[in-house]
């Protein structure tokens, strides 16, 4: 497995909570996909989950070697909960173009959070030479 890039991020949960409080639905729809919003809102400590997804998106973009530039939008990256809690990264739009260009086959991500901070680590791995990109919508 070839490592194409790594990324990490940490964010204060209250900061994300303030942005949600201040900008509401506009903020949520700009940053998160519909699926992410539903997931986070269904959790007991929703703000921590939103902050975790924020940190994950930042870490993933760093692992891909781009920031929010290059036409990449926040919702081009989606973090999904797979079976038994394993996280899956879905990439689309400009982020997919960047991933394809860099030879990324998959992005692995881990999120941790408490009441104060959320952190995430992402690793972009190369795809086998003969395989198509995985999990890219």
TrEMBL record:
Residues 5-118 form the 4'-phosphopantetheinyl transferase domain. Mg(2+) binds at residues 9, 58. It is found in: Cytoplasm. One of its GO terms (cellular component) is cytoplasm. Its main location: cytoplasm. Its EC number is 2.7.8.7. Keywords: Cytoplasm, Fatty acid biosynthesis, Fatty acid metabolism, Lipid biosynthesis, Lipid metabolism, Magnesium, Metal-binding, Transferase. It comes from the Bacteria. Pfam families: ACPS. It catalyses: apo-[ACP] + CoA = holo-[ACP] + adenosine 3',5'-bisphosphate + H(+). GO terms for biological process: fatty acid biosynthetic process. Its cofactor is Mg(2+). Transfers the 4'-phosphopantetheine moiety from coenzyme A to a Ser of acyl-carrier-protein. Belongs to the P-Pant transferase superfamily. AcpS family. This is Holo-[acyl-carrier-protein] synthase.
């Amino acid at each position: 497995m070839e490592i194409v890039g790594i990324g990490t991020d940490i964010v204060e949960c209250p900061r994300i909570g303030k942005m949600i409080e201040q900008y509401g639905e506009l903020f949520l729809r700009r940053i998160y996909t519909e699926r992410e919003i539903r997931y986070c809102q269904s959790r007991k400590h929703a703000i921590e989950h939103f902050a975790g997804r924020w940190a994950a998106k930042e870490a993933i973009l760093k692992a891909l070697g781009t920031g929010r530039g290059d036409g990449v939008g926040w919702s081009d990256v989606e973090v999904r909960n797979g079976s038994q809690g394993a996280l899956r990264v879905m990439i689309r739009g400009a982020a997919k173009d960047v991933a394809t260009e860099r030879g990324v086959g998959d992005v692995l991500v881990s999120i941790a959070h408490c009441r104060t901070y959320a952190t995430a680590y992402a690793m972009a791995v190369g795809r086998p030479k003969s395989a198509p990109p995985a999990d890219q919508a």
